[in-house]
Structure formats: structure tokens, C-alpha cells
Amino acid sequence: MSRLTSGGQIDRTQPLRFSFDGKSLAGFKGDTLASALLANDIRLVGRSFKYHRPRGILSAGSEEPNALMQLGQGDQTTPNVRATTQELYDGLIAASQNRFPSLAFDLLSVNDLMAPFFGAGFYYKTFMWPKSFWEKVYEPFIRRAAGLGRLSGKADRALYDKAFAHCDLLVIGGGPAGLMAALTAARGGLDVILADEDFAFGGRLNSETVEIAGQPGAGWAAQVVTELAGMANVRLMPRTTVTGAYDGGTYAALQRVSHHLADPADHLPLETFWRIAARRTILAGGAIERPIAFANNDRPGVMMASAVRSYANRFAVLPGQKISLFTNNDDGHRTALDLLRLGADIAAVVDTRGDVAAMGDYPLITGGQVTGTSGRLGLKSITVSSASGRLKVATDCLAVSGGWNPSVHLTCHMNGRPVWREDIAAFVPADNAIPGMRVAGAANGDFSTHAALSAGAAAAAEALGDLGKPAPATVFPAAEDAPIQLEPFWHFTGSKGRAWLDLQNDVTTKDVALAHRENFRSVEHMKRYTTLGMATDQGKTSNVGGLAVMADLTQRSIPETGTTTFRPPYSPVALGALGAHGAGKDFAPSRFLPSDALARELGAHFIEMGVWYRPSLFPQSGETHWRQTCDREMRMVRSAVGITDITPFGKIDVQGADAAVLLDLVYANTMSSLKQGRVRYGVMLREDGMALDDGTCARLGEDHFVLTTTAGAASDVFAHLEFCTQVLRPELDVQFFSVTDQWAQFSIAGPRSRELVSGLCDEDISNERIPYMACAEVTIGGIGCRLFRISFSGEQSYEIAIPARYGEALARELGQRAAALGGGWYGLEALNALRIEKGYLTHAEMTGQYTADALGIGGMVSAKKDCIGKVLSQRSALVGPGKMELIGLKPVSPLKQFSGGAFLFSQGARQVLGNEEGHVTSHCYSPSLDHVIAMAFLRDGRSRLGEHIIMKDNARGIEAVCEVCPMVHVDPDGERLRG
Amino acid sequence: MVDLVAKSPHSGLLPLSAGQLTLTEAAPAFVSSIQARQGKSSALAKALQASHGLTLPEVGKVTAATDHRLLWFGTDQYLLIGAAPAAPSLSEFAALTDQGDAWAVMHLVGAGAAEVLARHCPLDLRTERFGIGQTARAPLADMPAIITPIAQGFEIMVLQSLSRTAVHHLHQAMLSLAAQASLI
Hints:
heterodimer; A: alpha+beta; Ubiquitin-like (UB roll); FAD/NAD(P)-binding domain; Arc Repressor Mutant, subunit A; seven-stranded mixed β-sheet; six-stranded mixed β-sheet; 50 strands; about 20% helix; B: alpha+beta; Gyrase A, domain 2; 2 domains; six-stranded antiparallel β-sheet; five-stranded antiparallel β-sheet; 4 helices
């Protein structure tokens, strides 16, 4: 065991069991999966993406490229979980990825032998031909061979959550800079959110042996967190990664709520996706240590020096028995000192710099370079070159420190370009890259603890100043302030072996050289050609290294070479989290009818119309096909009486002295001439002359109207009225308000409808008092209702609007009374077929592409007045020969069904695109006629009545000869309506 | 004569509770829209003061008397809740519509009410930003809603046809927050 017997921030009183590739292992609370694996001497944790090279744990944070695991079992597994951030819990089941049959013996590691052929651009060059092979052969094969974890293919049953938060100051990162910033700002009275991706605040303080104010850094961090936790104006968000910076001070963040729990409670989400609106932000996300590229630098056992310190100091795990170091800065030496203190055996410290001295009792090779490694499934030795020659050093862990790259990612999310700082040989964020954001600490290149603390406090003081609050007097804790001593060293070029840059996408220095040779020299081209930095880690440990290699090749500086673009998310976000609250039925709100409960009792079939759930059919026993139900319901309406719930129609109450003026403007026809107590059918046009919507307009009083709109266009029409009154005619005295939800509304249609309605209403509703297109206030059971004599079926018909709370009760009453008259409920299928028999329009025809003339209601556009859309509806293309006109169609010989969207061709014309002369919009079977009928747009259709034409639907394989006919098939003179 | 029985939009859906939170139906006796006629805002203000003892609320505000309130709803638009509008005196200066059946009104009350609401509503719900006396029209899980702070929580109004969806989302959030409250 590599676990130290004491020390670290693990809880040895809480041992945990877990398994890796079926092997049962032990760890402690406070471990990550990675630290627990290392404590169990497991170094080989995965196979690489392309070459299936054996790989081990590289880092101790979210930048990890190698240690990706499949977590869980069965159909609820999660792939690509970074072992370095996954908290250990009792019963955790982890499996390595991308290997077959086993991690130690992987057949596809043959790819590695073929590596000379698989370099950058291999796929682009190789799988070009034959073209047809790509989809069927190459892609499936490559997908199987390459890749990371696997999805189960089953629906994810985990719960995800989404939430909004608001604060004065968002602090991203809970290391020394972030803690100091949060503390200063919170003491100064700001509402502070402190987010950190780790489950423990403290950042590097938890992994280093630095002291703050005379106590261990981790202790100081814990003390600050305790103070912050006690403040009402602070929200601590551990396990929360801020993944993106967006406009207006909005940030995206992913909180891992229950990934760390063995047995999460019911209703507990796995993750919460946050949108945080912050007036000011301090980015204190730290820095990521960078590797040095040398031959075979990807063996399990080669790690970052900072990670070795994390495992040793925080998790009390020595990642090797005999540890060596390769460094170009003082951090390598600090690592050696920490390890010595813990009793580790240091094989060698290799420093690229020539003029350094050992800081302690360890073998030091100055001016040296690691040029190679050995060990098939784990590091066994390294080869070191120096002025004194080549030397092979036996070691099972090599800690590498190539300096630090500030985590500039979030500052680039709004197109900020980082700035090169020569003294630390690293990119730092540009000033004001994100409005309202300041950057403090290592994220800004302030690497010493003292510098981080003071930068955090200063950034918070500035934020306080911005928001008009004085900075509190803060006793500033003392801490180390070691200067950076670094000699840039990126990669060793002298040896033959492959030197790896991007471990997750298997990109080597040679791939970058190949890109250069083939003239993909812009960094953006190089990135795409080699795929460097394009893996799930977005090249956190490889980007700058790749730039350095390209800079060398092009003999430019790194800043001249430039950087690629960092985009959100900073680390991967599950689609489940982004889609939280939107799975299944939650995708959109559901609106239910007042009669919904009754319809369900009656066994209705429902259909979603927009967000409304409306009954499509009310099947009766013995009906096995929807057409049987639909035909019966239609016959019922035509012969007796049918009821349907039409509450979803938009209802807009319009009042005011100028109400009629507005209506004359928005309706193509005239409404000002409408008498009180009367209803008129109307059509509205858009500015561009196309029909917007149709509906009815009832005049309840001199200055009081109620409009109906189609269900789907209710909000469009309302918005149109808002535009007209706010922008076009703001001087009009008009007030309108939606009353859609106030009224339940039912249609009672059929020759026996009056019989039914008159029995309900307390008033006389005779044909004399309430003729066709009349409206009146009536009472039903003492409740004030509105009665409209309008029809969408062609039958004698009434619509009753009743306050919604009585909707269900009235629905039940109507149903019973209709049954007594041989009638009953009818659904949308019958409603639609009834209106097609009458040639009435819906949005199948009013798609927004047709004028009133095309729809056959051009006569409604009043010649006596102007209206919105009138001028543009007269454009030459819309009025000249060849314009589309809505007509009816009937089959010439028996036809089973028309086809919505099918093209119409003239007989004898070649049936190719460009020759089509129109298309079918609506169709149904007409029980009245005993054959199918349709509505269709046809060029010059109204002058082609009687012509035979071909309907052709290539998708459904339907072709038929039809006759162009009038749209109205039933009661063309409207006698039933008026009867 | 027919005897029609009224059914409230939350019938069979509420009350619900989870952890320290409760979601209950609040069915105000009256809700009416009041829209000032062109140029009649100040006359309407006087009439409202005389008939209901209420001043016109500013944008995003509520004015209240003992048993009725006036919510700002839009430019020159208000909702009178809890009292029938004094129609003759108000009608001269305003268009009125009955909204008493249009809205489903709920009270979400208890510690963490803002956290529940924040699952579905992007408003800044911090008390100092959005407290008693304020109101807002805001989206609630893709539905138009009216959110008004009340003691220990919020009054939430959605269109009655959307009550089932609103209750579903709020209840799920209550259960989720109750479960998260027990996390260490």
C-alpha cells in the first residue's frame, strides 16, 4: 500500500469499499477515486483514445486527460467520469474504458504499432475513397475502435435540476485568492457566491505545505470557510464548476449534487445546472501545471509534480516507491522537499536549468533533460541526458513540472485573447476580457500565496468600490511570497520516440510537425488537423505545449503564434443537466381544457395542439378504427347535435372609444359597421399582405368587442394588436386584454342544437331573437354567459362562453342533454373533417404564405378602407396570372385517401420539381359524400374547375387523378346555418 | 333550472407540502383587469382612491388595503384582486374585464420558498431586491406568471389552464429542495 499512515485530509475513521474493473478495493472518505486507486497501487487506469496506449493518472484535478472512468452498472452508467474529481463513496463501481478484452491486455493496442500510418490527417487522407464506404464501413469501424466511455443506449433515469441565482459578487475558485476575495467582499456587505469545482474549498492550499498566518494553509482555508458559512450574505457552492461566461454578467455553472453519495435520497438531483447573474465577478480559478514533452512521456507513473504533492499532502498517498522529478522551475524542488518530509525515496531531481542548487538532501542533475522512459504498463526507468552524459535512473514515478498556465479559459468566452507574459512564460487574461470580471491570484499569474491573497483582497475591494461600498479593514495574513524562478522548456526534440502533447486525443510533437510540413501552420488549422486540444479536456494540459512546438517550427514567438479559442463549457456538462426540467412531458407546458376530466372519463383520445391537450376522438365500444369514430361523430353533428370544447380559441376583449377604428385597421374587412349584438367573421393580414389569422368579432356594446382567434395564433394576434396600438396608432383610445382563460367555451352544433341550448338558457333564444351571426348575454343556471350563433361545421350552431370555474359542470350538463337528443361529444378529427366539407380555413391553409385572395376570401378585403397588409397584398406576383388559389379536389376514380402536402401536376406534365402547380393542404373522408375530399392550392385554381389533375406524393407512393371542384361540399347555400 | 357547481383550478391538486414548504391554493373572491382609458390615468387614480382606497401602483409595485390589492400589470394596466371593481365609477376612466376565472393563484410558503421558485423563474428573488410591495410578471417554467412576494413566500399566479403544469413543476422543485436540505 502506498497510503501513508498519518497525515492528509482524509478521514481514516470512515473507510470505504469500492471496485475498479471488478476488483474490490478500499479507500477513505475524503479520497477521490484517483487518490484511492493510487493508494491501492493501481497506476494503469485506462487506454488512450487512438493508439490504446496504457495510461495512468496525470493530474489531481479537472484537467485530467487520462483517468476517465465508466461509473455505475447496468443501464445507468456514466461514462468519462474523471477519477481525479470523483469523490469516493462506499460501493462506488468504476471500470476502465476503451480497452478489450482487458486493461492490461488490449487487442487494439495494435494501433500503436501501426502508429506511423495513423498520424495527424490519416483519416482525412485515407477514408476519402470510395465515397460510399464512409457511412457504412469506415465510420462505424472507427467509432467502435476509437473513443472513450460508452452510453447504455437506455434513457437516463437520473434527475437533473436547473436553477437561477443572483448575487453582487461571484467568486470563481476557492483557493487563497478566491477565499480572500469572498471574505473581504462578504465582510464589506456584498451578497457573495463562492463556487469551487472541488468538494473542499482551499484550492492548492489543501495540497501544499505553505503556511498562512502561522498555520497550515488548509487550516486557514477551513477557518475562512467556517466564517463564510456563518454569514447570511454568502452562498457557498462546493462541487460547482463555473463552465461559461456570457453576456450581462451571466455565468453558467454545474453543481454536482449527488455524484458523491452511495445511496442518494429520492428526489435528489444528480446535478444542477445554474445560471448565475452577478453584478461583479472575480475569477480566481488558479493555474494548471504544464507537462514537458519528451519521448514516451505518457507512461503510467509519469505525473504532474503538483499532482504528486496533492496525492502526498492532501490524500496521504505516495504515488511511487522511488520518485523522480523533472522540472524547469523551483516547484520541482519543493515537491522533492515535501516528499522527503513524508519519508519518500527520491531517485533524482532533473532540472533543465544549469545554475541551481539542491534545496535538500536529494540527488540533483542540473542542466539535465529526461529523454526517454521505459516500462510497458507502468514506468520503470527514465533516461536522463546532461552535460555528464546519459544516465538511466530506476524510478516508478516521474513528477514533471514545466511551469504553470493560468486558467484563462473563462476570460476567453466572450472573445478575449490572453496576453503573453514573458517573466512567467505563460498567457494571462487580457484586461476587461469579460465585463464586470476581475482576475486574481494564479489565474492572473500571481503564483505566490502572498500574491494570491493580496490580489484577492484587492479585487474584492475594487468590486466593493464599484458597488458603492467601502472595503472593510482586513487584517492581512502573512504568507510565503516566493518569486517565480523558471526557465521556459517545452519539449525535448533530440530523441526518436514519440513525445506526447495531448494525452486525451493522442497528439504528439511529430503530429504538430506534420501539420507544419503540410502547411497547416495557423494555430487554428494546426488544432483541427492534429485534433490537439479538441478532446473533452479542451487541451488544458496540452494547448500551450502545442503552441510552443509550432512556434519553434515556424521560428516565431509563442505570442506571435497565437492561441486557439476557448469556448464554454470549461469542463464537460451532461446534456441531462442542460435539459433539466425539459425531459418527456416537461418539454413544454401542458394546457388542459375545462372539460378535460370529463373527456378522460369518456375515454377520449387526446392530441397535442400547440400546448393544449384536446380530445381528437370519443370512441364508443365496438369502434376499432379512428375513422369509425370520426365518421359517427360527423354524422351525429350533421343529423342531431354534437358538443366540443373550443376553449383554446384565443379570446381578446377590446374596449375603448376607438375600438372600432383599431379593428378596421387590423381586419381586412370592416368591423365598425357591425351592429351591437352581432358577430362577423374576419381576417387579419400581416404587413406583408399575407393572412395572419381568421376568427370572429362580436360587438357586445358600442365600444366593446370580443375577438376570437385560432388557438395556435392567439399570442401572435395579441402581439400584433400590441404592435398596432403601441407603435402604429398610439393615440387611439383602445384597451384590450386576453380573456382566453377566463371563459370556458363550447360549441353546440347540429340541427338539434337550438333544442339543446334553449333548454339550458333562462332566456328566449329563438331564431328570431338569436339569428345566425348574433350574440347575446344569457344566463345558465343563474350564471352569466355569452351566447354566439356562429358555426365552424356548417350546421345550426351555438357557442356558449361561461366563466371557467363552471366549465366542467356545464360540459357535463351539455353531454347529458346532447345524449338525450341523440347527440354527444365530438373530437378534433370530426371537427376538422366537418370544416373541410364546408371549405372553412385553418392554419393548414393560413400558413403565412398566402393572401386573402389566394385563400378564396379576397372579397373580404374592403375596397372602402385601408387595412394593414392591403397594399402589399396587391404586389404583382400575388395578383397576376399563375397565382395560387385555394380550391377543392375530389377523386375521379375511387381513392382511399388524399395526401397532405402532395404535389399537383397537370396531366401529361413531367412530374419533376419545378413543374408542380400546387399542393394539398387538408383532406378527409366525407361521410356525407361517401368519398374523400381535399383542399389544395393550385395555380389559377378557381378558373380550372372541372379540370382533371394529377396528385402525386412520392414519399407515400400515392398518385391519383382528381377533379378540381368548389371547396364547399355540404350545404353550399348555408341554409342549415340559418335554420 | 340547471345547477352548475364551480370547480377551482387547483381542485384536486393542492395543498401540497414537502419539508418546510407548503403550496396552497389561494382563491381570491375577485380578480379584474383595469386599463386606463387614453389620457385618463389620473382620473382613474382618483376614482380608485375614492372607491377602493387604493393608489395606482408604480411599475412592479402593489398597493394594498385590508382585503384587496392593486397589482401593476403593464403600462396603464392593473389587476384589482380581492374586491369587485366599483364598475360605474371606474368604467368611465378604465376598461374592466373579469379575470376571476382566468388565474390560478397559489401561495408557496416556508423556508426556502425562493430556492424553489428559482428552479423555474429567473427573477432576482432576494428579499432586498424583491420584497413585500413588489410584483413582477415573469416566466415560470416557460409559462407566463405573476409573482408577488408575501409573508414567508410568494403568491404565484398562472393561467388556469396551466395550473396542473405549474403545480407539477413547483412540487417537483419542493421535493428536490427538501431532499437537498438534508445533504451535508
